[in-house]
From TrEMBL:
Source species: Trichoderma gamsii
Domain of life: Eukaryota
Name of the featured protein: Uncharacterized protein
Amino acid sequence: MEDPPSYYCSNFVSSPTPSEQEEFLSPTTLYVAGRFIHSAGPPAPPLYELSHSVGFLKDTDRNVRIERLDYSVKRREGEAQIAARRRHIYDLKHPVRVTCPTFPYHAEPTSRKSLCTFGLESFRPKKLSSTRGYRIRRATHSLDHQLVRRNVLFSAVPARDKAVRYEWSDAEGQLVAREVDMSDLMTLVISAMMSTGERDALVSAWMSRIWAELAKKQ
């Protein structure tokens, strides 16, 4: 799927309202289809859109734009239509190695509603294991514009269950999502209530992890 559905889309981006800032989202299942991320269940318009097709992300790509699509019903010429408002939430970055980046992959927030800058780093959950997990760390910018590692935002570790690729936990170690492959679709089963900003960060971190994995295979 390379083109968005035939819904009326507005490129206007507004500041979040107080009610939006307080919104909490129920658990859901998300899956990737081309450049779009959908919620599983009855056919519905996508929730997120990326500038690149996820399955074709490469090591040579440097910047991936991710937008959240918010929907409302509007009347145009007397007919009700679903209107999508695009909210640019993060730019996912993959700097060239010669710049000695703090993180091989990181995300820069582009909205006041976005949680923070964060970076992706790999680690071994067990010392003698060959498997690798990922930590998503909050980051700040130093005076020389380098990223500085801060506390952990999320962790993704390989699961014992072969049906689950990674288990995602929050900063307190509480399980929030499981990453699985369902019918050859990259899928994230979110099991925790979270704010819109938290889910945006989790989805963006998920995309960064997939990008890092795909780049290694090339």
